[in-house]
From TrEMBL, chain A:
This is Dynein assembly factor with WDR repeat domains 1. Pfam families: WD40 (PF00400). GO terms for biological process: proteasome-mediated ubiquitin-dependent protein catabolic process; ubiquitin recycling. Keywords: Cytoplasm, Repeat, WD repeat. InterPro entries: WD40/YVTN_repeat-like_dom_sf (IPR015943), WD40_PAC1 (IPR020472), WD40_repeat_CS (IPR019775), WD40_repeat_dom_sf (IPR036322), WD40_rpt (IPR001680). PANTHER family: PHOSPHOLIPASE A-2-ACTIVATING PROTEIN (PTHR19849). WD repeats lie at residues 90-131, 132-174, 175-216, 217-259, 260-301, 302-337, 345-386, 387-419. SUPFAM superfamilies: WD40 repeat-like.
TrEMBL record, chain B:
GO terms for biological process: establishment of localization in cell; protein transport; system development; vesicle-mediated transport. One of its GO terms (molecular function) is GTPase activity. The keyword Magnesium applies. The keyword Metal-binding applies. CDD domains: Arl3. PANTHER family: ADP-RIBOSYLATION FACTOR-LIKE PROTEIN 2-RELATED. It comes from Spodoptera frugiperda (Fall armyworm). This is ADP-ribosylation factor-like protein 3. GTP binds at G25, L26, D27, N28, A29, G30, K31, T32, G71, N127, K128, Q129, D130. GO terms for cellular component: Golgi apparatus. Keywords: Golgi apparatus, GTP-binding, Lipoprotein, Magnesium, Metal-binding, Myristate, Nucleotide-binding, Protein transport, Transport. Mg(2+) binds at T32, T49.
Length: 419, 182
């Protein structure tokens, strides 16, 4: 075995070792989820050298340099980091927007709309690259296949989902079978599968290449409004439902693997953390819960919010989670040790419906019914910036992978790009 | 609660005692003013709706989820987005807009032909009765051909959305004519 080169992975921090074994080029990923501004890179390099036979004495200096670059990356934003300014207002949708998504590079973004289209935008120029037309009703949910980003998946109130080529706007497959609106969908990590969740109480799994249905996941007794593949293997799928439960499914069988019960109200969102060891769920019962994904047991219930919890997300390194609530606040919790509340973000004058971390984890982005989005310091809870200008409530928001661009989508029929 | 999640909540097939009302009509008919009047909100600052508004109102023991959809010509083709699970259709007519009586009649006729709205009770608000040039409700009914409707119950109610005259009477009819749930 011989080490060929190091590759850096910024979010979450990690390195990939590319090496030669019996004439074959292979790679091995090492997560460095604890890396932060205080990390001693020399010590860390030594630790890795001791643990990992591929890392030899000769490359230790080089490794240390790589770690230094990664460390800078985690520092480059945050309280003293960049400020965002309105860069483009995208206004060609004729009706309110729904959900939005960036591609991996942050060069393109997607917007879904009540006008039954999904549009592909060039972020740099603000030009509309393609309009994906074909759905017969509201396009509610949109997404790229990561990391390739050469396919788009849309879910619509017309009860179907579609797969598109974003370059040509050609619809490659229509995923039929649901008897209710498709309100959540996602590609698997490998991009070969697509999952959909519907108001018809089921989730479905489809083959991306043929558009054929593989499984229907039955078990929920109310609408399935959130789902996610596990980010690593892509063999597990979690779904959140208005029936108040979360289900875990396996892509190889259609029986339910387990049910996470405990919430007293509708689930509003459900997420895996980076290494898929944890599941976070938010509920209209006013609480958020953390679950052990393997044991299917509840690890913690956080109930700091005084009203419905509308969204939940983990940071990229899976160390913290954030929640958004009708009580006009967002909160950040530690998920690695004691589930302590780390920060409370107060200032919005309307309910907070979406929350996401910046890729490096220094900032939290929130979207609110008060027509503003805000950027917060995740350590102090202080508001760093208010992104104002939308004429209607903001339905969704997202950070680009590089952390240098933000999109916000509003009921005012426009989408704004901030840089 | 607002936001996208609220839209999903309101999309659910309605439980008992909860109704989905769809408010349609040409632009400037007074739909949003009517919606605000129902919700007892200030009606002085209403701008054209380039999308939709949703409000929940309690009336006669029912929770009415009222969807007010913009009426401008370019967004009328999207009215169909909102038809699913509608319990009552409310159509608002500006009775002083003589020039567009035919247009509003055509739009209504198209709605009544749609499969998803089959059998859904219809309430027509003959709005803007405070204006001197307004036609009375009976003449509006004539123009719209309401007497020819055979496949659903209907009612026409004269009203002034800006001051609330007649609005309550219309809602009482709505609550009395709720279709039996499937």
């Amino acid at each position: 075995m011989k080490l060929l080169r190091f590759h850096l992975r910024y979010h979450p921090p990690g390195i990939t070792l590319e090496y030669m074994q019996k004439g074959m080029v292979k790679s091995k990923e090492i997560d460095l989820l604890d890396l932060n501004a205080n990390t001693n890179t020399k010590e860390l390099a030594f630790l890795l050298y001791q643990k990992e036979p591929l890392i030899t004495e000769e490359v230790r200096d080089q490794l240390e340099q790589c770690l230094e670059v990664l460390k800078k990356r985690t520092e480059h934003e945050g309280p003293t980091g960049k400020r965002f300014y309105i860069y483009k207002t995208l206004m060609t949708h004729v009706l309110p927007l729904t959900n939005v998504a960036f591609d991996k590079t942050g060069n393109r973004c997607l917007t879904g709309s009540y006008d039954r289209t999904c549009k592909v935008w060039d972020v740099e120029s603000g030009k509309e690259m393609q309009t994906l037309t074909g759905h017969q009703n509201v396009v509610y949910t949109v997404g790229f296949n990561f990391p390739a980003c050469n396919r788009v998946l849309t879910g619509s109130f017309d009860k179907s989902a579609r797969i598109w080529d974003p370059e040509t706007a050609e619809c490659l497959a229509t995923l039929w079978g649901h008897r209710g609106e498709v309100v959540t969908c996602q590609f698997s990590a490998k991009g070969d599968l697509a999952a959909t969740g519907s108001m018809d109480h089921t989730a479905k799994l489809f083959d991306v290449n043929t558009g054929a249905e593989i499984h229907t996941y039955n078990g929920h007794t109310a609408e399935v409004i959130a789902l996610q593949f596990d980010p690593n293997e892509g063999q597990r799928l979690i779904t959140g439902s208005f029936d108040g439960t979360i289900s875990i499914w396996d892509t190889r069988v259609d029986e339910r693997v387990s049910v996470l019960r405990g919430h007293d109200g509708e689930i509003s969102n459900v997420q895996f953390n980076w290494d898929s060891s944890l599941v976070g769920s938010s509920s209209l019962d006013g609480s958020a819960k953390l679950w052990d994904a393997r044991q299917s047991s509840c690890l913690a219930t956080v109930s700091g919010h005084t009203d419905e919890v509308l969204d939940i997300c983990f940071d990229w390194a899976g160390q913290r989670m954030a929640t958004a609530s009708s009580d006009c606040s967002a909160r950040v919790y530690d998920v690695k040790s004691d589930f302590k509340e780390l920060a409370v973000m107060k200032g919005h004058r309307g309910e907070v419906s979406k929350v996401c971390f910046s890729p490096a984890g220094g900032c939290l982005l929130t979207a609110s019914a008060d027509r503003s989005s805000r950027i917060w310091n995740t350590t102090t809870g202080n508001c760093i910036q208010v992104l104002s200008g939308h004429q209607g409530e903001i339905f969704s928001c997202a950070f680009s992978y590089e952390g240098d661009a933000i999109i916000t989508a509003s009921k005012d029929n426009t989408c704004r790009i901030w840089r | 609660m607002m936001g996208l999640l609220n839209i999903l909540k309101k999309l659910r097939s309605n439980p008992d005692k909860e109704l989905r009302l769809l408010l349609l009509g040409l632009d400037n008919a007074g739909k949003t003013t009517l919606l605000k009047q129902l919700a007892s909100e200030d009606v002085n600052h209403v701008t054209p709706t380039a999308g939709f508004n949703i409000k929940s109102v309690l009336s006669n023991g029912f929770k009415l989820n009222v969807w007010d959809i913009g009426g401008q010509r370019k967004i009328r083709p999207y009215w169909r987005n909102y038809f699913e699970n509608t319990d009552i259709l409310i159509y608002v007519v500006d009775c002083s807009d003589h020039q567009r009586l035919e247009e509003t009649g055509q739009e209504l006729a198209e709605l009544l032909e749609d499969d998803k709205l089959r059998g859904v009770p219809l309430l027509v608000y003959a709005n803007k009765q405070d204006l001197a040039s307004a036609l009375p409700a009976s003449e509006i009914a004539q123009h719209l051909g309401l007497h020819l409707i055979r496949d659903r119950t209907w009612q026409i109610q004269a009203c002034v959305a800006t001051d609330g005259t007649g609005v309550k009477e219309g809602m009482e009819w709505v609550c009395k004519n709720i279709p039996a749930k499937k």
